[in-house]
Amino acid sequence: MEDNVLDFSGKQLKLNEESDAEEIVTALLSSRSVEAFRLSGNTLGIPAAAAIGKALESHPELKRALWSDLFTGRLKTELPAAFRALGSGLITAGAHLVELDIGDNASGPIGADGFVELLQSEPCFTLQELRLNNMGLGIIGGKKVASALLNCYEKSRARGRPLALKVFQAGRNRLENEGATALAEVFKQIKTLEEVHMYQNGINAPGIRALAGAFAENLKLKVVNLKDNTFTVQGSMAMAKVIPILKELEVINFGECLVRTQGAIVIAEAIADFHNSLKELDLSYNEIKMAGAEAIVQAIKNKNNLKKLDMNGNNLGDGGCEKLKILLQEVDKLKVLDSLSDDEGEEDEDEDYVEGEEELGEEEEEEEEEDEEDEYQYEESEDQEEHAANGVVHEAADGPEGKIQQFLKTNSVNLLKSLQEEDFSTFVQNSSEENLIDLLFELGRCHGQMSQQQALNILDQCYHRKLGAADASVAAELLNLLLPRLGLIKDEKKMQPDDRQMASILCYLKHITRHFPSDTRKTLLFFLEQRESAALRSAEAEKNDLIAALQDLSI
């Protein structure tokens, strides 16, 4: 054993009492220099921890405390005191740690109370690697860690050498959005991160957006591992926005993140022109269909350092898997493709399917049941409109909102002329995203039968009210309804306006895109520039005007 590494790891020692730790204490006291102390894979009680902590007081040179998996079989209530005893020894010694690994200890939030004192004290001012995997921290514990690290940063900055953390690991901790957001605020301050591993934490789109914002401040990031969280389209777009400025990325692991096809496309766009140092890209188990896979192939064709591409467990189907292999072979990248043995696609699935945001945490079967119930209720409401003797139902149909609904179904110009612009104010408050898209297209169909300015006023009012105070999921749903209607992805209903109507619709769309969030405009621009649509071919001039408007708004 080297003099500067003291290794008791993996010995499965049951260190209950002070006497049980005698061998370790003796080794610490007799060693002239201990720069790394490995204690993982044993089980540590409070009296033994106190004895070891006391012995650590004589080692200010210690740099690496590798103490994962230390409390198997212990009560969680024992952990805070044991952590404090070990940390107290380092604080008294005046050590300056470079690496601290206390992962796999399943401490829960209560355990964080024991080690946060160490995290915000002088031994951690020099910390470069912090490993907290599989601690069961939860939201509360995550916030405690974030608070301690922020204190550490502020105290160390006051000393003239701010905390310069490079590696942060906190996988499998159920941090969720609140814990992730709290840590993101710390990352924004630190700005020195090179690796972030926060896999399997129950983080969804709001937390992913917060992390993306923090990553934008850490331009030396090489490894981002967010596997087994829930991006959906919103999180994917947030990450795609920041990826182009992280030019040193080597590993991107977004596996099992519900990225889906549209998310894969925007991520592909983000990595296409940069990241020549990229070595691994994991987009496995993401419900990605062939359109997303094709975009990924185009994005990686110039990545000469790529060693691994994982697209397993997606929805390509047997034919899609073979097509992916052919496309990769054509760009000399087949050798980097991982197994496709768990692909979940069907041969007849719609390859151009683009998912919208869904309510998180619901099971697939529950969603299908809700869809069926909604369909039943919708059919029942139509039946009531036609046949029920209830006067309230008839009154609703005769009022402004009822007339607007009838206009959307019949495209009756006479109905439209009987309405005032202010009637749409009430309508939009109760309208669905589909109603808004229908309104855009139906007004386009009325081209030449009403003034263009009147149509623009109505659309302005409705889209401003709908998007002004809404969360991003509303805009995402609008986009997912709009793309198939423009022929940019397959529309199962095959509803396409005629050429003259499409020209008017694109003119109106150009006007209202100013109300869209920037991420939504960016995605729409991408599809317009990258995808062909038969429905848009005869409205080429209007399409180009729309693209130019979106480009101007993106500046």
Describe this structure in a few short sentences.
The protein has 555 residues and is an alpha/beta fold. The chain contains 22 helices and 13 strands.
Structure description:
With 555 residues, the chain is of the alpha/beta class. It is built from 22 helices and 13 strands. The strands form two sheets. An eleven-stranded parallel beta sheet has the order 1-3-5-6-7-8-9-10-11-12-13, with no helix packed on it. A two-stranded parallel ribbon has the order 2-4. Helix 9 packs parallel to helix 10 and helix 13 crosses helix 14.
Record keyword descriptors for this entry.
11-stranded parallel beta sheet, 13 strands, 7% strand, 51% helix, 22 helices, 555 residues, alpha/beta, two-stranded parallel sheet
Low-confidence stretches: 347-397
Beta content: 5-15%
**What is the quaternary state of this protein?**
single chain
Strand order of the largest sheet: 1-3-5-6-7-8-9-10-11-12-13
The level of helicity is 40-55%
Give the topology, please:
Blueprint: E1 5-7, E2 14-15, H1 22-30, E3 36-38, E4 43-44, H2 46-56, E5 64-66, H3 79-93, E6 99-101, H4 108-119, E7 129-131, H5 138-158, E8 167-169, H6 176-190, E9 195-197, H7 205-215, E10 223-225, H8 232-242, E11 251-253, H9 260-272, E12 280-282, H10 290-300, E13 308-310, H11 317-330, H12 364-387, H13 391-398, H14 400-410, H15 413-417, H16 423-430, H17 433-445, H18 452-468, H19 472-485, H20 499-512, H21 518-530, H22 540-554
Parallel strand pairs: 1-3, 2-4, 3-5, 5-6, 6-7, 7-8, 8-9, 9-10, 10-11, 11-12, 12-13
